[in-house]
């Protein structure tokens, strides 16, 4: 491919028209820019249980429609993941629980334990990805310009480190009163502009830390 190494640890594959992730990505790259390509799938684990060196991964503006992060046990120090501008309609963070039977699928232990920033803007999500609470270090979630319709009480459950949520330009009509109840560190911004909210949300906002938090609610339909 036409990928370029900038120094020893930065791999730049942007605008190289690649359709698969380079195999040497797992070896020494700390920062990898794979944006503006034709990548349709990204599989974290290569089956060899090798821990990658990646801290920053940019997969924006590709052709990814589905992504499963439950296999990403080999990315222990990944801090930022940029998935903007794909066609993602399914982002899986947790294992499904069977409807019948005594056994349950085990939850993912310490999924991406260092991940601080998850950006999934300009995709096709119609719900908040389930299992965000498994990302124990998550501080920033950007999900603007999707098709999310409502915020349920468990969407941000156990996201105790979250400081910044961007849900601008979705189709949100309903937010559960307890949706943000446990986000004690939410202190930077909550962006709900350009949605379809029809009534103000005092019962939700009262519990938030107004002294440090910026809340944006303009361009809704009330």
Q: Name the quaternary structure.
A: single chain
Mean pLDDT: 85
Strand content: 15-25%
Structural class: mainly beta
Anisotropy-based shape: globular
C-alpha-based Rg, rounded: 18 Å
Pfam families: LRR_1 (PF00560), LRR_8 (PF13855)
InterPro entries: Leu-rich_rpt (IPR001611), Leu-rich_rpt_typical-subtyp (IPR003591), LRR_dom_sf (IPR032675), LRR_TM_domain-containing (IPR050541)
Keywords: Leucine-rich repeat, Repeat
Protein name: LRC66 protein
In short:
The protein is mainly beta. The protein has helices at 25-28, 202-205, and strands at residues 4-6, 10-12, 31-33, 56-58, 66-68, 80-82, 90-92, 117-119, 140-142, 150-151, 164-166, 174-175, 189-191, 214-216.
List keywords for this structure.
222 residues; mainly beta; 10-stranded mixed beta sheet; two-stranded parallel ribbon
Helices and strands, with pairings:
Layout: E1 4-6, E2 10-12, H1 25-28, E3 31-33, E4 56-58, E5 66-68, E6 80-82, E7 90-92, E8 117-119, E9 140-142, E10 150-151, E11 164-166, E12 174-175, E13 189-191, H2 202-205, E14 214-216
Parallel strand pairs: 2-3, 3-4, 4-6, 5-7, 6-8, 8-9, 9-11, 10-12, 11-13, 13-14
Antiparallel strand pairs: 1-2
Word description of this protein:
Pfam families: LRR_1, LRR_8. Keywords: Leucine-rich repeat, Repeat. One of its GO terms (cellular component) is plasma membrane. The chain has helices spanning 25-28, 202-205, and strands at 4-6, 10-12, 31-33, 56-58, 66-68, 80-82, 90-92, 117-119, 140-142, 150-151, 164-166, 174-175, 189-191, 214-216. The chain is mainly beta and 222 residues long. The protein has a ten-stranded mixed sheet with strand order 1-2-3-4-6-8-9-11-13-14, with no helix packed on it. The protein has a two-stranded parallel sheet with strand order 5-7. The chain is globular.
């Amino acid at each position: 491919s036409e990928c370029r190494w900038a120094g020893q640890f930065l791999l730049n594959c942007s605008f190289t028209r690649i359709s698969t992730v380079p195999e040497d990505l797992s070896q020494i790259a700390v920062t990898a820019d794979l944006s503006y390509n034709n990548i349709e799938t990204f599989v974290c684990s290569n089956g060899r249980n090798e821990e990658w060196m990646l801290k920053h991964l940019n997969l924006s503006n590709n052709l990814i429609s589905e992504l499963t992060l439950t296999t990403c046990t080999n990315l222990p120090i990944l801090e930022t993941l940029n998935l903007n501008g794909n066609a993602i309609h399914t982002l899986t963070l947790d294992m499904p629980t069977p409807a019948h039977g005594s056994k349950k699928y085990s939850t993912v232990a310490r999924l991406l334990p260092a991940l601080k920033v998850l950006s999934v803007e300009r995709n096709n999500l119609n719900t908040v990805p389930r299992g965000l609470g498994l990302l124990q270090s998550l501080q920033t979630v950007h999900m603007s310009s999707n098709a999310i319709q409502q915020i349920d009480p468990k969407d941000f459950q156990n996201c105790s480190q979250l400081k910044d949520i961007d849900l601008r330009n979705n189709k949100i009509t309903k937010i559960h009163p307890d949706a943000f109840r446990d986000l004690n560190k939410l202190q930077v911004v909550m962006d709900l502009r350009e949605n379809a909210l029809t009534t103000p949300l005092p019962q939700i906002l009262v519990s938030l830390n107004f002294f440090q938090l910026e809340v944006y609610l303009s361009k809704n339909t009330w």
